[in-house]
Amino acid sequence: MTKTTLFAAGLAAFAFAATPAAAQDTLRLMTGPQGGVWVPLGGALKNIWEKAIPGVTIQTLPGAGIANVRAIDEDKAEIGFGNSISTVDGINGVAPFPRKTTNVCQLATLYPQYFQIVVNADSGINSIRDFRGKGLAVQTRGNTAEAITKQILEVHGLRYEDMRASFLPSYTDAASLLKDGQAQIFTLGTTIPASSVMDLASSRDIRMLDLRDSLEGMRKLNAGYYGIDLPANTYPKQTAPVTKIGYAAHLVVSCKLPDARVHAMMKAIQDNFRDLVLVNKAMEGVGPKEMAVDIGVKFHPGAVRFYAEQGVKVGS
């Protein structure tokens, strides 16, 4: 073979070897709607992983709990935030998932999520039964908070058709509708205090609905729900604790990611965990034991290895 032929062959071999690695080094991270905590948490994770893992680039993308799980399962993303209740629905192939997910592995449980219902104080709404004929601002269909909203309406014998429902891509847009008086009810699932609710409360008085009387019915629909107190003074003029519907926020990854890559991701999270706490105080006190809690989603082997090195058995 001539030198030219050998050189061309070498270039072709290099290109063939480099292409998979290059693609693998750009990881797509699905976050959440604007106004929720997943967007800034995603930015913090991007910074952590890009600094700690040589050659890795993180592309952050907007998303939502159900959409993120589906994207990972369908190879449209490698990492995403999820909600325990809907991720388990995906594992089991329960609606709104069209089939069982098989490519979604658990990375870490992060903090409790609060399903919250906010109403304008002057709306005359004191319970879910008062929703009939009112304006409702909710996430787009198929997202986790929208699915929970549909369920809680069902528990009280209501449907979207009984009110004026607006399906919106972000919590920020929903808060704007209530500010303008075009809607009176805002449902969301996120940590506390939610920035979108704080923004709404800066413009007009709000009321947080107590969901205690919905809990039994909600648990019949999904055993992963539980009652969780919203502490007094979480939001302006909220002087007493309010019961909300709780579930867990967590990180999931493609089961196809190499074990070494996932192990490095977990180590970087552990070494820089304070950066995440600065974004979301609900993660204060979370360590390997809390992150390794079994929520019904199989752990990625790379994560299992990391937890074992921390002296923690997953699911214990």
Architecture overview:
The N terminus is likely disordered. This protein has two domains: 148 residues, D-Maltodextrin-Binding Protein, domain 2 (3-Layer(aba) Sandwich); 134 residues, Periplasmic binding protein-like II (D-Maltodextrin-Binding Protein, domain 2), CATH 3.40.190. With 316 residues, the protein is α/β, with parallel strands linked by helices. Helix 5 links the parallel strand 5 and strand 6. The chain is globular and about 55 Å long. Strands 1, 2, 3, 4, 5, 6, 7, 8, 9 and 10 form a ten-stranded mixed sheet that branches. Helix 2 crosses helix 9, helix 6 runs parallel beside helix 7 and helix 9 crosses helix 12.
Tag the structure with descriptive keywords.
disordered N terminus, 2 domains, D-Maltodextrin-Binding Protein, domain 2, 39% helix, 12 helices, 316 residues, 10 strands, alpha/beta
Can you summarize the main beta sheet? 10 strands, mixed
Succession of helices and strands: HEHEHEHEEHEHEHEHEEHHHH
User: What is the architecture of the largest domain at the second tier of CATH?
Assistant: 3-Layer(aba) Sandwich
CATH level-four homologous superfamily name of the largest domain:
Periplasmic binding protein-like II
> How many structurally independent domains?
2
Briefly, what CATH class of the largest domain?
Alpha Beta
| Portion in beta strands | 15-25%
Spatial shape = globular
